[in-house]
Design a protein that fits this description.
The complex is a heterodimer of chains A (about 650) and B (about 675). Chain A has about 650 residues and is an alpha+beta fold. Chain A has three domains: about 1-240, Sandwich (Immunoglobulin-like), CATH 2.60.40.3140; about 245-420, Roll (C8orf32 fold), CATH 3.10.620.30; about 430-635, Sandwich (Jelly Rolls), CATH 2.60.120.1130. In chain A, the strands form ten sheets. Chain A has an eight-stranded mixed beta sheet, with helices on one face. In chain A, strand 27 and strand 28 form a beta hairpin. Chain A is globular, with a radius of gyration of 30 Å. The N and C termini of chain A lie far apart (about 85 Å). Chain B is α+β, with helices and mostly antiparallel strands and about 675 residues long. Chain B has nine helices and 36 strands. Chain B has an eight-stranded mixed beta sheet with strand order 6-5-9-2-1-11-14-13, with no helix packed on it. Chain B has an eight-stranded mixed beta sheet with strand order 26-27-25-24-30-34-33-32, with helices on one face. A five-stranded antiparallel beta sheet of chain B has the order 21-20-19-22-23, covered by helices on one side. In chain B, a hairpin with a 2-residue loop joins strand 20 (about 410-415) and strand 21 (about 420-425). In chain B, helix 5 (about 325-340) runs antiparallel to helix 7 (about 365-380). Chain B is globular and about 105 Å long. The chains are: A alpha+beta (about 650), B alpha+beta (about 675). The interface between A and B is large, with 56 and 59 residues.
């Protein structure tokens, strides 16, 4: 097969479909091992990428997938995004039945063309082509051949032979054809062989291939796809996009390219310069100046996404932002950079891969792995990081969107790899004190005072800043884990800093919080901090367990109960000391007060697959402990008047 | 009595006289002063993040040079943005329609942001040349987007534009209500006599001003499409000027158990009723029977099934081979269509594809698939008709007005013997003779010559489920039991979907997790999983693994039975509660007192009625006889629709249920 692929690559124009006679895709020809735990099988997948000119990549992709059952249907849809720099030249397709008999060919008018820009964006040129045979007699096979041309060479496609979970792969190959002298850069994951290299005069063809790969089943807290499936990342050495040329052999050169895009785009109009002078006047330190200017940015701009052509990578000019008071992450970061420059404070435009729980970039493989821009400001002591698209974020705080990861700062000398602030156990805390009174009707009046820090305050920060007070109340009225309740007084106080905190005051009335049956009273002393996750045991866990976030919760609760009860049963003290975290809870009665204490340190890290069972046990034990009830009995001496 | 009536009438009359001074729109383009910035909290909604000061539309018709009529709509809008969370109000998307090379046009866009700087109003204009972006959505629709420059907290933005459309038979609805409160919402419509429209008003806010005025005018129509000199025609006609104003419209609010917010948005809709001279006289809204008769002739609807469709032999012959009755034939055809065709759009009233094409492409809209089903049934001489309806998320229909635009869904009715069977072939796991829950939205119409009404009313739907549990002490003295559950049809349907999607194993895990005790589950059996017309039976054995303490607290409602929280959490309610069906849930438990224990305390039995009419019933009966405990718990709700005034009653009823259902039996070890 490999030989055949190479032959085809040289002959260039021979249609692939012509070689696939009826019956070649019959289901019985699939090796039985590939049918296990699979909803679909990739029969053949060939990609051929040719660097035709310094600013032009030709891509041909051909794939054949057999859909085995209903759950495999989502693999049957053809979906191909395109934009100004990526033109789809042709799409061919065919449908086969289980015996491999061709039922239908794709007609070009059947391909749907649509707008791919999300509702969020004001203007971009993202579009897509889409098709589906909608055949539902299983098994069936679909085949597509796509030819497209990329009119830039900054991004090379990646090889992802395994599309997702529960699909196995019979044959897959990825060939890259570059001029002989060209340095093709790549990084392999879960691929142990060297690529097959063929040189012929002017060109050099690298080929990666995979055969008979059995399906993967996703597991809870599993490592990212790159770490469990074969995967190859590619990047250019020298490249061209529109009128810009660059090289990304190392982060320094990559940074120089970004610098060339931004060049001269930091000019501010005179009134803004005057404003900078006015704002920074009298500020004691540079940090003070930065914070004042950042507050000015936050108060006077908003995020609007405009990404047309090169505008996907080059910021709109600072003067544009000054006039319109809006921009995307690039434009706003560049504007902030210009404001600081005007104030005489150097800062660095910083490219980063954002997202809650996103995979970190491959630090040893300099390439365009980014989707966001922030600004880093070197200050005596420590760097201050600024998220320029947010009108509310604390200066210097990154949170789970951009914290705990690598980024590349763009300096005059080029790009430099750096790390953004790390938020760990000490920072991500939630400390809660609850005072509550239970009355004879079992109604609980709660006064909860909590302080949330860093990543534990991210969601709350969003909520209180995005919602009006009555919406916050509405949210609280739905969100809390009580059967029937009323939210009373509540208040939030934000303390903005590099490690921001939010103080919450929340008064709640819960009807029938305790259960009173005849002479007994049942009550769960853990009122508001119950660990909710329970995991499904998996004896054949295959992959490492990766836990992302480190955090600490501390709760103390005091509940005053009606007089005349004595304890029948108190939950045992629970102490769990595991690799994944430490948990402690204890309850005691003092007079007519229940005193409850709970602490949880949840660790992050990578753990061997075999330890998963312990994590299941740990979560189960916490789940149980957090719901344990205290049982009280009405004292016999009390007259039974009711 | 009568004098009082007159008196009231007089007051109303003089009231309207007083109002007339406030009849004028409160704003004019460009007329923004420092005073307009002074209000930062508006009395209509002290929490509002933005307030629409005025939203005014004005639609009229004029003759064009394509020998026809154009509809011109002018829109004016002023918004006071109070804080940054309302910046989205500074971006506008205007949607347009096009057909072949005729498309609606945007004209005369003017947009200004006003800011108060040092006590002075500063204007920033939108760059309408470079700042408006067009995006194609599909063949027939595109959108133009712009965002206002220089927007800050406290900014006032103002824009106006004109849309020219040659599609004069379609008038967009006017929405008086939106995500932000509106102080003045006004719509004006100048309607020439030759176009008759029906007006439909919805929502709970009443008009503050309505006006109607008829005058005469002249239309000039030019035809310059030919090669020669253009032709010119003129005619006089009466025009009626309509005006509708609502002041102080609160923002829309999302609430649970609302089938769709669309039922509640205050708006006015227009439906073409007839064209009159100089246009050819044509009636568009007539009796229901006329509407359905026309639909039966429409090539995008009934025409497909009116034909003989002899070519269907190829498909139906093998299906009905050996079928002994019409019912069996219908069943086989239904399952054939259900299993071989994919529904690509669950909200489409018309069928563009031909039946042959549907068979070829194996896909279609809900209308296409169910019309194919109708055609195949008819081909086999089974009396079958399409039924038009509006799904729950699409909103309620007006039975009085036979307006096609209110309908978005088609199902099939077949009369076999003396029974009517309703079916929908778009859901892969739905049984013959059943409709999905989304169809239960009240009034629907059979598309036949008599246009028979049918009612799919949630209030008449009753979802009945029952669970029985038997628990004994096994030879080792452990508590073991078996549970048998028969959910209602809709729950059976979602259970089928769930098992198909996630597998039986995950259901077993879910069951295990649903117990508060540590349990092991064995012999999980799901009966009738693949018999889509029947209810699923869930059956399994369980062993309670918890160590037996000196005192055992035991809630007799095991697994996921019983309410753990009140489904009606909000304290206040604005719109009616619209549930998909009423329900009747019964739970029975027979158990042996754990070996070596005695009952120390049993919850008290109780029976509660929600109201006088007993539309809600809660029964909790428990008793002990020797070493055996019998328990029965039943929750019944006989209605699915409740007015906002009844909300408190509903919430209280469920509060009581949740509380009672959390009670426990206490067993004590024998001394």
């Amino acid at each position: 097969m490999r030989k055949w692929v190479s032959l085809y690559l040289f002959s260039g124009l021979i249609s692939l479909t012509a070689l696939a006679g009826d019956g070649d895709y019959a289901v019985f020809k699939i090796p039985p091992a590939l049918l296990k735990n699979a909803n679909a099988v990739v029969r053949v997948h060939e990609q051929y990428v040719e660097l035709q000119k310094e600013d032009r990549l030709f891509i041909r992709e051909h794939y054949v997938i057999t859909i085995l059952n209903e759950e495999g249907n989502h693999f049957s849809e053809f979906f191909e995004p395109y934009h100004k720099f990526l033109e789809i030249k042709s799409v061919e397709g065919a449908l086969y039945d289980g015996m491999g008999k061709k039922l239908k060919s794709l007609k070009s008018k059947d391909v749907e063309d649509g707008s791919g820009s999300g509702g969020e964006s004001l203007a971009d040129d993202n579009r897509y082509k889409k098709h589906n045979f909608y055949y539902r007699v299983y098994p069936y096979t679909i085949e597509y051949t796509i030819e497209s041309v990329k009119k830039e060479t900054m991004f090379f496609p990646s090889w992802v032979p395994v599309f997702g979970e529960l699909i196995s792969v019979e044959k897959s190959s990825f060939a890259v054809d570059v001029p002989s002298g060209y340095l093709l850069r790549y990084k392999e994951f879960n691929y142990s062989r060297e690529p097959d290299i063929k040189e012929s005069g002017k060109s050099k063809i690298y080929t990666w291939s995979l055969a008979n790969f059995e399906s993967i089943k996703r597991e809870y807290a599993a490592p990212s796809w790159k770490n469990i499936a074969p995967y190859v990342l590619f990047a250019p050495s020298s490249f061209v996009i529109e009128d810009y040329k660059g090289n990304m052999n190392d982060w320094s050169s990559f940074g120089k390219f970004i610098l060339s895009l931004n060049k001269g785009r930091d000019q501010l109009p005179e009134p803004v310069k005057a404003k900078v002078a006015e704002l920074t006047r009298g500020a004691g330190t540079n940090e003070e100046k930065v914070i004042r200017l950042y507050r000015y940015l936050q108060a006077n701009t908003r995020y609007i996404s405009i990404q047309l052509g090169i505008g996907g990578w080059r910021p709109l000019e600072a003067s544009f932002v000054a006039n319109k008071l809006y921009g995307d992450c690039k434009a706003l970061s560049n504007y902030m950079y210009a404001l600081l420059k005007e104030a005489g404070i150097p800062s660095f435009y910083t490219v980063i891969k954002s997202g809650d729980g996103a995979d970190d970039i491959q630090v040893d493989f300099s390439s365009s792995q980014f989707n966001h821009v922030i600004l880093s400001v070197p200050l005596p002591g420590d760097t201050l990081w600024l998220e320029c698209t947010s009108q509310t974020q604390s200066p210097g705080y990154m949170g789970d969107f951009t914290g705990n990861r690598h980024a590349v700062i763009i300096t005059e000398e080029g790009g430099k790899l750096v790390t953004t602030p790390r938020y760990g156990m000490k920072e991500n805390t939630q400390v809660r004190n609850v005072k509550a009174v239970l009355n004879e009707e079992a109604t609980l009046e709660i006064e909860a005072r909590s302080t949330y820090s860093c990543m534990q305050q991210d969601d709350l920060h969003m909520m209180i800043n995005a919602l009006s007070k009555d919406k916050v109340k509405e949210y609280l009225q739905h969100q809390l884990d009580f059967a029937t309740y009323e939210v009373g007084r509540f208040n939030y106080k934000e303390n903005q800093s590099r490690f921001p905190t939010i103080d919450e005051e929340l008064d709640i009335t819960v009807s029938n919080y305790a259960t009173i049956t005849g002479k007994r009273l049942f009550i769960v002393p853990n009122i508001m901090s119950r660990h909710a996750r329970r995991l499904t045991p998996n004896e054949s866990r295959k992959y490492e367990v990766e836990l992302d976030m480190e955090y600490r919760d501390i709760d103390s609760v005091e509940i005053t109960i009606p007089a005349g009860y004595s304890v029948e049963s108190v939950p045992q003290e629970v102490v769990l000391d595991t690799k994944f975290g430490r948990f402690r809870s204890s309850v005691k009665m003092e007079g007519n007060r229940i005193l409850y204490y709970r602490s949880l340190d949840h660790y992050a890290g990578k753990f061997p697959a075999k330890e998963y069972a312990e994590l299941v046990k740990f979560y189960d034990a916490m789940y149980k402990a957090d719901r344990a009830k205290l049982v009280l009995v009405k004292n016999e001496t009390t007259p039974k008047s009711f | 009595m009568s004098s009082k009536g007159i008196f009231l009438c007089l007051i109303a009359w003089s009231g309207s006289l007083l109002l007339s001074a406030q009849d004028k729109p409160p704003v004019k383009f460009g007329n923004v002063t420092a005073k307009d910035f002074a209000t930062t909290v508006y009395p209509i909604d002290s929490n509002a993040q933005a307030v629409v000061i005025a939203d005014i539309g004005y639609t009229f018709m004029e003759g064009n040079n394509k020998s026809s009529i154009s509809v011109i709509t002018k829109r004016y809008r002023r918004v006071h943005i109070l804080n940054k969370n309302a910046f989205d109000a500074a971006s506008e998307s205007i949607f347009f329609y096009k057909n072949m090379d005729v498309e609606e046009e945007l004209d005369k866009l003017k947009a200004v942001t006003y800011n108060l700087e040092n006590g002075k109003v500063v204007e920033t204009k939108l760059d309408t040349k470079n700042g408006v972006f067009k995006e194609t959505i599909n063949r027939n629709r595109f959108v133009k987007k712009f965002t206002m420059p220089n927007v800050k907290e406290g900014s006032i933005i103002e824009y106006e534009y004109t849309v020219r459309s040659d599609f004069f038979t379609q008038l967009d609805p006017w929405l008086f209500q939106g995500p932000y409160p509106v102080l003045w919402s006004e719509y004006n419509l100048e309607l020439p006599e030759f176009l008759g429209f029906t007006f439909l008003s919805r929502g709970y806010k009443k008009y503050d001003i309505t006006k109607k005025n008829t005058r005469s005018t002249t239309f000039t129509i030019i035809d310059s499409r030919g090669t020669g000199a253009s032709e010119r025609g003129q005619f006089s006609t009466n025009v009626t000027d309509h005006r509708w104003v609502i002041k102080n419209v609160p923002a829309l609010k999302e609430e649970n158990f609302t089938s769709t917010l669309r039922n509640h948005i205050t708006r006015i809709e227009f439906q073409l009723a007839e064209t009159r001279p100089p246009y050819a006289y044509k009636n568009f809204v007539q009796s229901w029977s006329k509407v359905t008769t026309d639909l039966l002739l429409d090539e995008s609807f009934g025409e497909k099934i009116a034909r003989d469709n002899g070519w269907l032999d190829e498909y139906t012959n093998p299906l009905v081979l050996g079928a002994k009755s019409d019912l069996e034939k219908a069943r086989r055809i239904y399952y054939y269509v259900r299993d071989n065709f994919t529904c690509t759009n669950y909200s489409d009233f018309y069928a563009d594809q031909s039946l042959k094409n549907i068979i070829k492409t194996k896909k279609g809209t809900v209308s296409e698939i169910n019309l194919l089903l109708t055609a195949m049934l008819k081909h086999e001489k089974i009396l079958a008709d399409p039924v038009m309806l509006s799904t729950r998320s699409h909103g309620q229909t007006y039975e009085l007005y036979p307006l096609k635009s209110q309908y978005n869904y088609v199902v099939v009715k077949a009369d076999i013997g003396n029974t009517a069977y309703f079916m929908d072939a778009t859901e892969p796991r739905l049984g013959f003779g059943h409709l999905p829950v989304r169809c239960y939205n009240g009034h629907a119409r059979v598309v036949n010559k008599t246009a028979d009404p049918v009612y799919f009313t949630p209030d008449t739907l009753m979802e009945r489920s029952s669970t029985s549990v038997f628990m004994i002490n096994d030879e080792k003295g452990n508590m073991v039991g078996s549970l048998n559950r028969v959910p209602g049809y809709f729950e059976s349907f979602s259970l089928r979907e769930k098992v198909n999607e996630k597998g039986k194993e995950s259901l077993e895990t879910e069951i295990k997790k649903s117990f508060t005790q540590e349990v092991s589950i064995a012999k999980l059996k799901l009966d009738s999983l693949n018999k889509p017309e029947e209810l699923v039976w869930v059956n399994y054995d369980f062993d309670i693994l918890d160590p037996k303490e000196d005192i055992i607290y035991f809630n007799p409602l095991l697994a996921s039975e019983g309410y753990k929280e009140n489904p009606f959490k909000s304290a206040l309610r604005f719109y009616p509660v619209e549930m998909p069906y009423g329900f009747d849930r019964t739970y029975n438990l027979q158990m042996e007192v754990p070996e070596g224990y005695v009952v120390d305390e049993l919850p008290k039995s109780m029976v509660v009625k929600m109201n006088e009419a007993e539309e809600g019933m809660f029964e909790y009966r428990i008793s002990q006889s020797g070493t055996s405990i019998s328990f029965r718990c039943r929750v019944q709700l006989k209605r699915a629709y409740f007015d906002p005034e009844e909300y408190e009653m509903l919430r209280e009823f469920f509060n009581l249920i949740v509380t009672k259902e959390s009670e426990q039996i206490v067993f004590k070890k024998k001394k």
